[in-house]
Amino acid sequence: MQALGLPGKSFVPLIVGFGCNVPSVMGARTLDAPRERLMTIMMAPFMSCGARLAIFAVFAAAFFGQNGALAVFSLYMLGIVMAVLTGLMLKYTIMRGEATPFVMELPVYHVPHVKSLIIQTWQRLKGFVLRAGKVIIIVSIFLSAFNSFSLSGKIVDNINDSALASVSRVITPVFKPIGVHEDNWQATVGLFTGAMAKEVVVGTLNTLYTAENIQDEEFNPAEFNLGEELFSAVDETWQSLKDTFSLSVLMNPIEASKGDGEMGTGAMGVMDQKFGSAAAAYSYLIFVLLYVPCISVMGAIARESSRGWMGFSILWGLNIAYSLATLFYQVASYSQHPTYSLVCILAVILFNIVVIGLLRRARSRVDIELLATRKSVSSCCAASTTGDCH
């Protein structure tokens, strides 16, 4: 951490980010200097959270087979590397400075009371279920509606004629350099829903790929039984609840996110066909790993710093995600289209050189803003009777 110009206390919030980026960002408030807090906050979104793991698991099963564990591990390592490189970039451009001395007095630790542990666990569980549940329901309704109607408002039989497909096809060519082709518009939708909550990416892809897999099957009303379908749905929900609170989940937290990473075999087959290669799938995962965090994380960044720094974090993440995904895919598929790949690679390198140059020129302005922040924090602490300005 000293090499990044950060104190040792920055390490703890970053480690917390492997569970969820929200407490990671909020944990930066334990740092004293504004520069150190901002650098830690900017690095936190690159720590791969548990919701991303569910996405990685599905793609690993579909594209990488026995090498799936290695692919997932490499993505985690890539996130750490990009967090470190982001810290170095900030240190040598807009946030120059040295780390403050690391002196921390260890508190008196106590064994937590079971009652307090249960109450706090229930509150956090309820908050997560309500927050994530509302997002998942809203996203599902939105996708179902736009996937059933055309832009003119007519009901469509083929999802490729739906409003969702039409709008996504317009945007999808932007992602061609990272291996997402125009007919794979479902992957584009997954990226947009993932910006709201990473937990819904797998559900989005499963819904859209499954719909394309069964669109040619004719519906026979005589064979449909509402009672049986309702009973099947209730039974499936009950089984999922039992699995969620089973001993294996309590003993192995990774099992808790297993349900988020389930995808039907038919949907996996369509997804494999749409991406076409493991290189395209891995490039997509690189983008998912590094691009904008979910809404909750963006809100936490805005609260702990400012909306301006939240915007910087979003733009920097998009740039890093698009650049690395493009470089990986174009290098991996260079033999298929050497001229196009060379143009993409050079464009990405040139663009990032320009970005770094602009950040170096903006250093003096950011120093003034950090100084102003430092003064406001000092004033807050001086005026506070408790000495707590966080």
UniProtKB/TrEMBL annotation:
The chain crosses the membrane at residues 12-31, 43-64, 70-90, 128-146, 281-302, 314-332, 338-359. Residues 1-62, 129-304 form the Nucleoside transporter/FeoB GTPase Gate domain. Residues 72-124 form the Ferrous iron transport protein B C-terminal domain. Keywords: Cell membrane, GTP-binding, Ion transport, Iron, Iron transport, Membrane, Nucleotide-binding, Transmembrane, Transmembrane helix, Transport. One of its GO terms (molecular function) is GTP binding. GO terms for cellular component: plasma membrane. The keyword Cell membrane applies. It is found in: Cell inner membrane; Cell membrane. InterPro entries: Fe2_transport_prot-B, Fe2_transport_prot_B_C, FeoB_GTPase, Gate_dom. Pfam families: FeoB_C (PF07664), Gate (PF07670). The keyword Transmembrane applies. It is a multi-pass membrane protein. Belongs to the TRAFAC class TrmE-Era-EngA-EngB-Septin-like GTPase superfamily. FeoB GTPase (TC 9.A.8) family. Probable transporter of a GTP-driven Fe(2+) uptake system. This is Ferrous iron transport protein B. It comes from Escherichia coli.
